[in-house]
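Side project, low priority. Logging it here so it doesn't get lost.
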Amino acid sequence: MIEIIPAIDIIDGKCVRLSKGDYNQKKTYNESPVEVAKQFEDLGCHSLHLVDLDGAKSQHIVNYAVLEEIAGKTSLNIDFGGGLKSDDDLRIAFECGAGKVTGGSIAVKNNVLFESWIARYGSERIILGADAKGGMISTDGWLESSDKHVIPFINYYVGKRITDVISTDIDCDGMLEGPSLRLYSEILAQISGIRLIASGGVSSMSDVYALHEIGVTAVIVGKALYEGRITPAELEQHNVKLI
């Protein structure tokens, strides 16, 4: 059964969501991310996708205090991303309680450093972020485009022993219009041996099941949870099935 991983995106220490990664289309859902994280834990979630949007924009870790508080007050396995650009950023993330980190922009712009992280910490703690717009990888909080196509980009890092890949179709993110089944089917058809984690566009449990049917291992869900498109009861019932 596919795992649902709730997402918490942070700006100014608050729980927010963007639409298509646009910082000008920001909606604040809660002043206390730790309160939201506790709610997800109470509903049976074991993992959390925590994104430092301030860090992604600033190109260095910013909201590490939020990470530390959530890690200290829940037992969630936290995957942390956003603004991780140096060994020092990575050290801070792990010291503040991240179980895993996601590297996207760094994997594009400084592959030598990112590969050193994989070698040092292992693929069980380093996730590849492969966020795409029109099939091309985007970086820096989705504010910049690259010349790298998503398939060869992922393939390159599979050759470096990456196993976990988070892929967001940016055009779908925050729109509640369904995930990019075509993108994920294409990735799974051409790349074997990865744990593909889908992100963006999920609007209901039917979208979750559709991703499960094509072989996606886990799905990150944000706005659908905050807007009640997937209810707490549905999330809890799904998590019971995972036990």
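Brief comment: The chain has eleven helices and 13 strands.
Revisit when time allows.
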